[in-house]
Amino acid sequence: MIATTAPVETARRGTSAARGAEAAERRRWEELAERVRDVGQYTTRAEAERVTRIVLSVLGGHVTGEERVDLARSLPREAAQVIASQIPVTRPLTATEFVDAAAARIEGSTPATARWDVSSVLSVLADMLDPNLLNRILTQLPPGYALLFGRAELPSAR
To answer: Which of 1, 18, 66, 114 is the most core-located residue (most Cβ within 10 A)?
Structure first.
């Protein structure tokens, strides 16, 4: 009898562990959204989540190669999926064009509010990332992005 109940108990523990891991990932996403809400001074977490998804979707096409993989690994699963689901761009946008692209996706946005939204999300992201990864990402992007991440512009190595 012990042999027949052990697989059931193991399956239950596996299911419980999976639920625990899923809950932990959800908490990581909620923490990210709360940090964006605080930095961006949004009234609700839902608004912060919406802006975060939009900014990450624009960013996702601009980060490629190992940096994209490492970025996705550093983020909560929901954010990583947004990054990974984007098709790489054929021409990187300038920082101003990046903000304009985000503005086009954010309902009621102006260039000023879009810059605020983008900087709110990317500065939180910068604080979450390993500094070496952030520098590698910024090296991939055209000049001007470091300021969107709340960092001083890196000297050009091009």
So the answer is: 114
